[in-house]
Amino acid sequence: MWHEFLANPGNIPTIAILAVFSVGAVAVVMGTLTQIVKTVVKHRERMAKIEQGIDPDADPPKSVTP
Fold first, then answer.
1. What is the pTM for the complete model shown?
2. Which pLDDT score, from 0 to 100, does residue 33 have?
3. Which residues, in sequence order, are CB contacts of 50 under 8 Å at separation 6+?
4. Phi/psi of residue 65, each to 5°?
5. What is the mean pLDDT of each run of 10 residues along the chain (66 residues)?
6. What radius of gyration, in Å, describes the C-alpha atoms of the chain?
7. How far is CA 36 from CA 28, 29, 33, 60, in A?
8. What is the pLDDT of residue 30?
9. Is the CB of residue 51 less than 8 Å from the CB of residue 44?
């Protein structure tokens, strides 16, 4: 069934279009998942700072150079 569709040279443009859209769809899904994971990690770090009594919105201390 699929092997006949893939083996037909007349279907090469259709196969190419499906491949391009598949790669694009995977890129969008992976980009979205990456942003979700980054947000979750940032939130967990913020909550850990709050639990330790650290103000998460404070500016980081500036290093003093001699």
1. 0.65
2. 98
3. 56
4. -100, 135
5. 84 90 96 98 95 87 72
6. 25
7. 12, 11, 5, 25
8. 98
9. no
Tokens of 4: 């006949």
Supply 49's token pair. 């700072």
Tokens 């006949």 belong to 4
- Residue 29 is encoded by which pair of tokens? 């899904």
Q: What is the DSSP letter of 11?
A: G
CA distances from 50 to 38, 40, 59 (A): 19, 15, 15
Tokens (6 digits) for 1: 């069934």
Domain range annotation of the chain: 21-52
Tell me the Ramachandran region of residue 53: left when phi exceeds 0, alpha when psi lies from -120 to 50, beta otherwise: left
d(CA 27, CA 37): 15
